[in-house]
Amino acid sequence: MPTPLEKWVEQQAQLTKPDKIYWCDGSEEEARTLMQIGMQEENIEGTPVFQALNPSAWPDAYFHRSHPSDVARTEHLTFVCHKEKVTAGHNNNWMAPDEAKALMTKLSDGCMKGRTMYVLPYMMGHPDSPYAKACVQITDISYVAVSMRIMTRMSKKVVEKIGNSENFVRGLHSVGDFDVNKRFVMHFPEENFVWSIGSGYGGNALLGKKCFSLRIASCQGYREGWLAEHMVILGIEDPQGNISYVTVALPSACGKTNLAMLQPTLPGYKVWTVGDDIAWLNVGKDGRLYAINPEAGFFGVAPGTSMKTNPNMMRTLHANKFYPTLFTNTALNVETNEPWWEGLDGPRPEKLIDWQGKPWDQNSGTKAAHPNSRFTVSLYNCPTLSKEVDNPQGVPISAIILGGRRTQRVPLVVEAFDWQNGVFLGARTGSEMTAAAAGQVGALRRDPMAMLPFCGYNMGDYLAHWLKIGQRLTHPPKIFAVNWFRVDDQGEFVWPGFGENIRVLKWMIDRASGRVGARQTPIGLLPELKDLDMAGLHIPQEKMEKLFAVDPDGWREEVRDIEKFFHEFGDRLPKAMAEECAKLAKAFA
Ligand code: GTP
Ligand code: SPV
Ligand code: MN
After folding, report:
1. 253 and which of 222, 267, 399, 436 could share a cystine (Cβ 3.0–4.6 Å)?
2. Ligand nearest to the CA of 407
3. Please, what is the angle between helix 575-587 and helix 552-567, to 10°?
4. 315: part of which helix (H) or strand (E)?
């Protein structure tokens, strides 16, 4: 008798008609074979799926180029297919499940002809964790199979674990013919199923990541009483050796990976990395909030990564422990066969080919690496990896930090008055859009908890769920919001960011343990400048004041924009959020 898993795989094979079916076991040996296959397979015209990079400079590293139309998440082609449209909310594209399945069935008929179907059994979360979930993804490209080996805990043991159960998360992925007109990422939360076609890009194709661990998992969390969040998890060790854990939600390409492994500029401080993109948060028996990282790797933004900004990521990329490391859509140094991106250390190489494989002309006004070019590398290569990373219960959270990319108006850091006000602080957060999603870079959009593109259900219900979780916490974390991105009149960042962000983290930890006071303003509690540890960093007083300036005119406009955004939630907006918003409006009236 075939198991439910075997039956499901067989059904998908009947539809997609691959030449071969291969069940991955997640071993290193297998990954090496897949790399060999990928190096011989044509992906897009003239480019193989993988190219080996210079092994003396970048051991076990490979380059992948995706289709030029397929370099970022495509939010407009991403749907959440609940039975009822209102369950998906105004924050999601919606299609009725039957209609979505009919469309996907048509597009998928025979889409794997001539290709190999890879069956990938994997866990999100450490297998020993009560919060981990067993999953199986099907794909038809070696790049996704190898990437999933890095990003998840892939093993044949998962097949045994699933056994005769129906209870596993399903993902069906095919690159199709990369046709953007036949590209869709469909989620079926009621069935724990994701179906994606036409894209080989990370967030659209590595279905354990945003598709499952956020969109589907947020729905599971809503039903089961926990939270799936777009958050970094890190430990901050003070000079006395005490470690406090915090989570940080920032929208895509707004600094999570950098923060996760920051090299502190304050003496005696250390940062320990638990995760850089996704956190699953559960209420512990002791009434505290606990976080696990469901992932096992980093899929990080390459441009801007250097020994200056993020030395620990540079070390991770060179660690050569867990096989392999991938680079996608960076530029290439023709002479040395090394990946290159804007912001990398050292002089710019003479001869570069750009992310599309064309000789790059420095006078062309274009970037050589795609702004959303990325690396894929194992968490276990990271020199700052926390010893708690595999703790099945997760780590206890002292502070939740929310934020966005705001060049104006929003201060460097602000603390919420309490949990409800903190949920409002998250709900009102806006961010200027980045290259991580196809869309208008720089445009301001409200992005509650950095989850607008990832919340798999009605965002009004999501905010209500946050409020409810707060009621169950007898020791709730303090909630803060940060903004590293305020610029001066010349357009330069006022705050130096990166390793210097430890100064802000320190203030938050000091607040959480009641060591320092704060200044009350209508938008929240702000630091007294004397309480920010600025030892060894000189920023003129006037600039520091500007970082914390609350301009009433600006905030009146801000409130109007928040009200407009909240209006879109209709009757699903929790009353508490409307009340908080009214309070803020009144303070500036
Ligand atoms: P996703 O992987 O898309 O979720 O992005 P992320 O939030 O992990 O962003 P990441 O850390 O990769 O940073 C994105 C960009 O922001 C990079 O170009 C960084 O160099 C830049 N960045 C990160 N931290 C800071 C900071 O503190 N200040 C400034 N000015 N830029 C930063
Ligand atoms: C993001 O866009 O937030 C990412 C990359 O972390 S992706 O996997 O494409 O979602
Ligand atoms: Mn992300």
Report:
1. 436
2. 1
3. 160
4. helix 311-318
Number of helices (H) and strands (E), helices first, in the chain?
16, 29
Return all residues near 23 (Cβ < 8 A) that are at least 6 apart.
Answer: 119, 121, 156, 159
H or E, element range at 14: helix 4-16
Please name which of 124, 130, 204 lies closest in space to residue 172, comparing C-alpha atoms: 204
Index of the ligand 1 atom closest to the CA of residue 250: 7
pTM of the model: 0.98
Largest Cα–Cα distance of the chain, in whole Å?
74
447 CB within 6 A, ligand 2? no
Q: Which two tokens stand for residue 444?
A: 């301001």
Express each pLDDT in 346-392 by its tens digit.
999 999 999 999 999 999 999 999 999 999 999 999 999 999 999 99
Q: Which ligand is nearest to the CA of 211?
A: 2
Give distance in angstroms: CA of 496 to centre of ligand 1.
13
The tokens 């990938």 sit on which residue? Answer: 120
Instruction: Tell me what pLDDT residue 566 has.
Output: 98
Pick the atom of ligand 2 nearest to 230's CA: 3
Catalytic residue positions?
A: 254
Segments of the chain scoring below 70 in pLDDT: none
pLDDT of residue 180: 93
pLDDT digits (tens, 9 = 90+) for 50-64: 999 999 999 999 999
Q: How far is the CA of 308 from the centre of ligand 2 (A)?
A: 23
Residue nearest to atom 4 of ligand 2 (CA): 252
Residue nearest to atom 8 of ligand 2 (CA): 203
Q: What is the pLDDT of residue 228?
A: 99
Model confidence pLDDT, tens digit, residues 188-208:
999 999 999 999 999 999 999
Residue 228 CA to ligand 3 center (angstroms) comes to 13
pLDDT at site 44: 84
Ligand 1 binding pocket mutation candidate from 204, 258, 432 (most atoms within 8 A of CB): 258
In this prediction, residue 40 carries a pLDDT of: 96
Rounded distance from Cα 146 to ligand 3 centre (Å) = 19
> Of how many residues is the chain composed?
589
Domains of the chain, first to last: 4-49+70-224 (3.40.449.10), 229-295+388-587 (3.90.228.20), 297-381 (2.170.8.10)
